[in-house]
UniProtKB/TrEMBL annotation:
PANTHER family on file: MALONATE-SEMIALDEHYDE DEHYDROGENASE, METHYLMALONATE-SEMIALDEHYDE DEHYDROGENASE [ACYLATING], MITOCHONDRIAL
Keyword list, A-Z: NAD, Oxidoreductase
Enzyme class name: oxidoreductase
Aldehyde dehydrogenase domain location: 14-476
Phylogenetic classification of the source organism: Bacteria, Pseudomonadati, Pseudomonadota, Gammaproteobacteria, Alteromonadales
GO molecular function, one term: oxidoreductase activity
NCBIfam families in alphabetical order: MMSDH (TIGR01722)
Protein's UniProt name: methylmalonate-semialdehyde dehydrogenase (CoA acylating)
């Protein structure tokens, strides 16, 4: 049985903690590793190592920092399959999806390789006679990342490569449910030439997180996870005067217009709703059918019913199990509530099992129609392979539903009408919009821009916004008088 290591000051070490948390294979229920709830003093050592490393790392030329990312990108590509297999063993994701989890993280490392141009400041010559003003961006210090279970490769890679390439050092607190993947990412980062202390990894739950959020040497906090924890992290970090960006839960709607291509809609919504067992923050969990598009619900439900859950290396499997038994019980409770509250269960995955893996946390594809906005299955984030279908008469009604929803992570519209698409993208109160694209996760040269209860903060993940989040701007106004300096004191605020 492997005990997952901490990374402190360049050394992978076993925790002295007596409190170990089981890491399970969600497909079998077997315990595959144990992760420590790190001791307070170990967490303190991780922050101290990061603080110490910052003194030299911030002065390493940005080109050299970018070269660490170039080597890291090559190593991650070389090791993509190995990482994906570790990831699949602790998340249950099917192999292609696990490869995708790693790949979307590699793309962020590629973005981090562009640090020299992303960190360029601005200059205006001659803002007054003989005076120039220019700005530079400088790193903040020690940054903290707290990550969820559902993308154990991609989401840590949203954070530390960009923070570190900007000259910061980092403490990562990954999900205790699948910590082996982020620790492997950290091992490979050391292999790429990251100096000791630049990246540190500590494990644990609320107590460790609170210790870090209250630590005076942490300058900025990036969090991804559920809404209640996201609010707690944002409130605690900002109450401690830290910069914070917290990405939280979601309820993503797609709107299906009657002029859309039916087959395109069905092909796209199958994967967008039940892919990764619905455990994606950008999963489509609500489909709003407008007018005659309502007639496609049964056909969509039949296509979704065809998708079979299975173990990671089963090539026929469309998705894997839920992460834990607790997650499974929560989703089963929501499916039951949908039935009791009067929704029609067209496809019911609550009795699902996979032969040979009866202890796995399986839920099959599930589709509800006749859903109303007052039902729990509509109001709560299900985070399971469950699609809720609603029907309306017009695009305006669909927009009203989406805009009334408290979440604003992602949405999409399927239509053949440019006018409908333009109205939707303009009027919808959601931060990431797909037009005939179901899950509009932007590539890392843009930013991941959830809104409303799906995000607390102002500067988003990756892209230019991440560089602004992980740096402070300094503006310099300078005069180098060649001949005579202006006579007498200047008692005004004007430059002369
Ligand atoms: P979670 O909130 O339970 O855990 C996230 C992190 O917070 C973990 O590292 C965990 O150890 C820590 N944590 C848990 N409880 C805590 C507490 N009480 N105090 C302090 N820290 C605590 O989330 P999860 O179940 O791992 O992930 C699923 C959630 O993440 C879903 O709601 C999903 O929508 C969301 N998510 C959002 C995005 C996004 O970009 N908006 C992306 C991925 C996942």
């Amino acid at each position: 049985m492997q005990n997952v290591k901490l990374l402190i000051d360049g050394e992978f070490r076993s925790s002295a903690s007596q409190h170990m948390i089981d890491v399970t294979n969600p497909a079998s229920g077997d315990v595959i590793a144990r992760v420590p709830d790190a001791l307070a003093e170990e967490t303190e050592q991780a922050v101290a190592a990061a603080k110490n490393a910052f003194n030299s790392w911030k002065n390493v030329p940005v080109t050299e920092r970018a070269r660490v990312m170039m080597r890291y990108q090559a190593i991650l590509k070389r090791e993509q399959e190995r990482i994906a297999k570790v990831l699949a063993s602790e998340t249950g994701k099917v192999f292609d999806d696990a490869m995708g989890d790693v790949w979307r993280g590699i793309e962020v490392v590629e973005q981090a390789m562009n640090a020299p141009s992303m960190m360029m400041g601005e200059t205006v010559e001659n803002v007054a006679r003989g005076i120039d003003t220019y700005s530079v961006v400088q790193p903040l210090g020690v940054c903290l990342g707290i990550t969820p279970f559902n993308f154990p490769a991609m989401i840590p890679l949203w954070m530390f490569p960009l923070a570190v390439v900007c000259g910061n050092t980092f403490v990562l607190k990954p999900s205790e449910q699948d910590p082996q993947t982020p620790v492997l990412l950290a091992e490979l980062f050391m292999e790429a030439g990251a100096p000791a202390g630049v990246l540190n990894v500590v494990h644990g739950g609320r107590e460790r997180v609170d210790q870090l959020l209250n630590h005076p040497d942490i300058a900025a906090v990036s969090f991804v996870g559920s809404v209640p924890v996201g609010k707690h992290v944002y409130q605690t970090a900002t109450a401690n005067m830290k910069r914070a960006q917290c990405f939280a839960g979601a309820k993503n709607h797609t709107v299906v217009m009657p002029d859309a291509n039916k087959q395109h809609v069905i092909n796209n919504l199958v994967g967008a709703s039940v892919g990764a067992a619905g455990q994606r923050c950008m999963a489509i969990s609500v489909a709003v059918f407008v007018g005659d598009a309502q007639q496609w619900i049964d056909e969509l439900a039949s296509a979704i019913a065809e998708v079979k859950p299975g173990v990671w290396d089963d090539k026929e499997a469309g998705f894997g199990p839920l992460i834990s038994n607790a997650a499974k019980e929560r989703v089963l409770g929501l499916i039951q509530s949908g039935k009791e509250e009067g929704a029609t269960c067209l496809v019911d995955g609550s009795e699902c099992t996979v032969e040979g893996y009866e202890q796995g946390h399986w839920i099959g594809p599930t589709v509800f129609s006749d859903v109303t906005t007052t039902m729990r299955i509509y109001q709560e984030e299900i985070f399971g392979p469950v699609l809720c279908c609603l029907c309306v008469d017009s695009l305006d009604e669909a927009l009203a539903i989406v805009n009334d929803n408290p979440y604003g992570n992602g949405t999409s519209i399927f239509t053949a009408s440019g006018a409908a698409a333009r109205k939707y993208q303009s009027e919808v109160s959601v931060g990431q919009v797909g037009i005939n694209v179901p899950i509009p996760v932007p590539l890392p040269f843009f930013s991941f821009t959830g809104w409303k209860n799906s995000f607390f903060g102002d500067l988003h993940a990756y892209g230019k916004q991440a560089v602004r989040f992980y740096t402070e701007t300094k503006t310099i106004t300078s005069r180098w008088p060649e001949d005579s300096i202006p006579a007498g004191p200047n008692l005004t605020i004007n430059l002369r």
